[in-house]
Every structure is written in C-alpha cells, then in structure tokens.
Specification:
Length: about 300
C-alpha cells in the first residue's frame, strides 16, 4: 500500500482488528429485525450514475455506493450475502480495480451481508455497529471502527464517514463525498420500502430499530447535523436518489409527526389511535416493517 497516496485518518477513533479465529466465532448469520426476510421476487437491479467516479447499485438489499479511484474501489454497504455475486459483477463492469474498502452504514444484514466475501477488502463501521453485529453473531465484522468521524483517502480522493448520533440504530454512519457533494445516509433516511417500491413523495416514514439502539426522538437531531454538510445529492439506504431539499421537507414532516403523535398520547389515546394517525395522516404502510417494528418504541419515546 502506498502510504503517501492511500491513508486512513481518524479522530475519536477506535480500531478493532479481529483475527480469523474471532471472525469464525461470530460467523453465524443473523438477520436484524425487519431486515433479513427474503422477498418472493427480488426487485430488479438498477445502476444509477451520479458522476464518472460514483455510482449507486439499487435492487435487493440496501443501496450500494461505488466510488472509483485509480488505486481501487470504496463501497458503501454490501447488501445481503446472497447478492454478493451480482454485486461484484456490477462493480466489475464499472472498474477493473480491486475493492479496497467497504463502509457499513449500520449493522443490518441487508447492508453488511457481503462483508466477509469481500476479503481482503477492509470493512469500516461505527464502533456501535460492531457491538450490534457481535451481539447478533453476524459474519463479516468490521476491522476498523470509529467514534465521531473517519476519513479514507484513496487514489487522491476522499470519503468521510460521520456518526452524528442515534437514528435508525445507535451505530449509523453518514458517508460523505465532499468533492462530489453527495451524502449516503443508510437507513436513517430511506425513500423506498426495501423491496423496490418507492415511498409516496409526501410521506413521513422512518424505520427505527429499537432493538439496536435506534431513536426517533434523537433521529431529528441527527438529521439536523447531517443537513449541515454541503451536499446536493442524497443516496438513501433504500429507494431512489433524492436532493437535499427533499430531505429538508421530509425532516419537517417528521417533526409534524412527532408533535401529532405526542398530542394523541397526551389525550390518553392508545396504540390503535397512534397507528391510524401514522397510516392516514403520514402515509405509513399499514403492512410495512416500520409500522410493525416502530410503533411500540415510538409510543414509549413520546408518551408523556
């Protein structure tokens, strides 16, 4: 490795390097709540070009960003393990350079499932994501973890990972491409249901994994911190790409949702009443994972 051209910078960073024995110890796959179920007919794979050196592979599993440099490739999220061959084939069509790094935006298997199969690529994630993956006995544990932020410089290009606080989980990473003004958000921000169906453009949906430290209340502050970055294009965890202005509008919708649900609970109304508000007023899917997985935790957070 040419250390003059390829360096990893960290601040408030913790490095965790695991041996083959350790990786084997936790090699049993475990799908995180609401994320691991296979769909009967996987959505078609779509490759979006943002710039000549940044692409997004959408389809089954989380969105994967592909950043091309002269010295190798940086991926953001690795989809399910079963998607590995298709993912590598799509990446190889964009560049013949090796995959050097894979940054996980959070621990769920639809974003980390391909980690172990990308060796010798280095897997990077927030330290809490590592803890959650160890707890879930998941394969492909990150070799490098960080606290607040981490920079990866490869082939004269830079990617920065930020942890702004709790959102979808307690280990979310926002991946920023400063020269391109692009931000990959993981599942803190999604524009689709993970099965190829976009969210209604006016909906205020967010999926919180309370089992892994997520928080709706703290998500608002986390998103506010992300919005301070200078970016134009947003790569959500699932669904089509959007612009910064779309995230600003969606963030306002979440604030209205918080206030409305808080008012319902203040009137001593129950779970069914909150569910109806989310479905009718904020366009939550009545059969979707967010409503099933988030409702109890949301009520607990917002109950007076």
């Amino acid at each position: 490795m040419n250390t003059e051209k390829q360096t990893v910078r960290w601040r408030s960073t913790e490095i965790a390097i695991f041996t083959t024995l350790c990786l084997g110890l936790f090699a049993k796959p475990c799908a995180m709540r609401g994320q691991g179920a296979a769909v009967a007919t996987p959505p078609p794979t779509v490759v979006d070009k943002i710039t000549d050196d940044l692409y997004v592979i959408r389809g089954e599993g989380g969105n994967t960003s592909v950043f091309l440099t002269d010295e190798g490739i940086i991926l953001v999220d690795t989809k399910f393990e079963r998607d590995h061959d298709d993912l590598v084939r799509r990446v190889s069509a964009l560049s013949n350079k090796p995959i050097r790094y894979a940054i996980n935006t959070h621990p769920h298997s639809d974003h980390t499932g391909g980690n172990a199969l990308l060796s010798p690529a280095v897997v990077v994630a927030h330290k809490n994501a590592l803890t959650d993956m160890v707890k879930g006995r998941m394969p492909g544990l990150p070799q490098i973890t960080f606290g607040d932020d981490i920079g990866i410089n490869l082939g004269g290009k830079q990617v920065v990972g930020y942890h702004f606080g709790r959102c979808h989980t307690d280990g979310d990473t926002f991946v920023y491409f400063p020269a391109l003004k692009v931000l990959a958000t993981g599942d803190c921000i999604t524009t689709g249901n993970g099965q190829g169906v976009p969210n209604p453009p006016t909906s205020s949906r967010i999926n919180i994994d309370y089992n892994n430290g997520g928080s709706f209340v703290e998500a608002l502050a986390t998103i506010d911190q992300a919005l301070k970055l200078d970016f134009d294009v947003v790569v959500p965890g699932h669904g089509p790409l959007v612009k910064k202005a779309d995230v600003v509008r969606w963030r306002s919708g979440l604030e209205r949702l918080r206030n409305r649900v808080s008012a319902v609970l203040h009137e001593s109304k129950g779970k069914q009443d909150v569910s109806e508000v989310l479905v009718k007023e904020f366009e939550w899917d009545p059969a979707g994972n967010p409503l099933r997985n988030v409702l109890d935790g949301l009520i607990k957070e917002l109950k007076p």
